[in-house]
Design a protein that fits this description.
6-stranded mixed beta sheet; globular; alpha/beta
Amino acid sequence: MVTIRRACRSVRASASAVVAVALIAAVLTPAALADGDPGSDVLVYQDLFAGSDAGLSVQQQVQLGTLLKAAGRAAFPIRVAIIASPFDLGAVSGLWHHPRQYARFLGVELSLAYKQRLLVVMPNGLGFNWAGHPTDAAYRALAGIPIRPGGTGLFNATEAAVAKLAQAGAVKLPAAAGLAGPSGGASSGASGSATGRSGQGGTDEILGSVALALVAIAAVAFVVYRLGRRRGWHRPRLSVRWRLQLAAHGPRLAIPGAALAIPGAALAIVAVAAAAVIVVRSNGPATSQADALATNPDLDPGTPVSGVAPDFSLSDQFGQPVSLHSYRGKVVILAFNDSECTTVCPLTTTAMLDAKAMLGKAGSQVQLLGVDANPASISIEDVWSYSELHGMLHAWRFLTGSLPELKQIWKRYGIEAAIEAGEITHTPALFVIDPAGKLSRLYMTQMSYTAVPQLGQLLAQSAAALLPGRPPVHAELSYARIQPTAPTQAATLPRAGGGTVDVGPGNSARLFVFFATWDQETSGLAGELDALNRYQATAKRMGLPPLTAVDEASVEPSSSTLTSFLHRLPQPLSYPVAQDRSGKIADGYEVLGLPWFVLASRTGQLLYYQEASTAGWPSTNVLIRYVKAALARAPKVAGATAVNQDLADSPPPLAALHQQADQLLGGSSGLAARVRVLRGYPIVINAWASWCGPCRSEFGLFASASIRYGRQVAFLGADTDDAAGDARTFLSQHHVSYPSYQTSTSRLSWLATIQGLPTTIFIDPAGKVVYVHTGQYDSEGTLAQDISTYALAN
């Protein structure tokens, strides 16, 4: 930290110097967050900046955002500034039509927060910057890319430039990023853009030095003025809030876009130093929040979007006509929601309600809207039923119309909505629209119950920023990832009707069914829970794992909803009903929709799961059969130190794998070397990540298969685009009889093109890749069939 005395020695004894010292002394205490110029402000936390005049459609903006996230997951982080006019450059409009110079300038501006690749796209050319790296190779790769007029021209040039740069870096990106949304059970994961942030202490020292340098410059400028010398320079970047309003008299310096009185020039430069310190010092908590947000895989920080929100007219849950333009003057939070969804949509709508509540009285200036995104359920009754069961009947307008009308709206907003293999898939998009009807921000809901309040706070903050007077948000939640409660951890939950329920490791395995009362919309919830009384009685008689129901209270309409529902059941339930009010249990037990069955071993290992909303509720006999089968195939390996009896006679190369059970080993080169060592044996490589829901769901199948086939087949894990700490935590809770190697999507390209996670690669004894399975294995049978076909057949 710079001291006042040291600053004083850097300035001439003059009135301006005294004021300068006072200014710097003042800013060394926390101050309000300052605004910045458009591009650098946005790119501190986001991958893409596209000015409002760029002319990009919503679909193009979403597609670019998806492409940049894919690049991040491929260990090729890159951020893009699309500069369509001088207005997009703010205080440095003199850099208009100078993309290379602006790229360098932007790299310096972002250097405290981001040190990776930067691409600048202007109508007349491209710029590139990567701190500490030469740019010659990048500009050779970018040479010849045409930039045609208009938004589509900028969009096409941006896509081509990112692809060329990735290619030059030997990184293979998906051929077409497409629009964001689920596909084929493979998880896309979270954005992998890397940031390199310095600590606050280091930042203070850097800023102190910068401030001192600027003060020295101020002194020189003052002397120069006294000598009557005149020089021209660009106006320094200074936020609007802290810009000096100097007297408009006296001789003037030539400064593009502004004019400053020479007697105040030195003071103005000192003010720049002061403002720089103010901005970063005041960003302490905000930067910490941004760091947390950038590293939270369960929370989308949002993507800036621009342009007028496409208008539409549909009917709400009461059959009343509603148009988007009728809400001009209000902030609109618009969700595309499946009217029968039991997975991510309830998380979205709960977050919307949270956002409005967090705004207090200002919430009256925010309108919640939903548009049905289920092609098979678009009746008024469908949207009414969802609204009623989720406690939103009078809290929002859930809109529907004819299928052609809805398809047109989906297309205009870049929403994918389709029926695939009998299941509804759609883009879980949330748009924030300003009072003038212009798009502001796009969020994608992640499948995490614990992150719902955090998403609500993000939405509330986005809405507040668009409202007059910026009303306060009545919440102070951290954006750091909330650690879930794994089955290996003991926890106590409140029990419906009074008392508590203990979960976690115990004397025996335990069966759980997670549900919410709104499951009534898609199944006979009351009857199915009543039928589980028969399982509980049979389990007690046969010594099977007892049943515990868990109500996912984190997404229930109110605290009284469960009580009312249980009172309406034909008879009391013979098993306990716990309440998961935080979502930590659901996330820890890897619940990806409701209702959801989970069987946990006595040590907390997950042995079996079933999503009843898609697979259907199992009958008592079927459930008993599933439970018995899961217990029979449960791996007995409890980590690297205990090798299962079934693997004791494995050949030495395979036995060496078993001795490294559950270990996370380093590097793609290590994986390649291991594959070479295993020549002569068939190999199954499972590419996974701890943040990938489908990966977690199928992991138990590989644990079982590796025990069953481990004396003939070499199993390996490839922990892909993941944090080592998260991966090790996951492996400590999900035991397998083989090691995993930490790698990335791009570094697996020597084996196969990874289109998403999970991916399973089958290699024959000669070392040739014979099959690549993209997506999740749903059952032990399908995995066993592929092992027999592609591993053992050779």
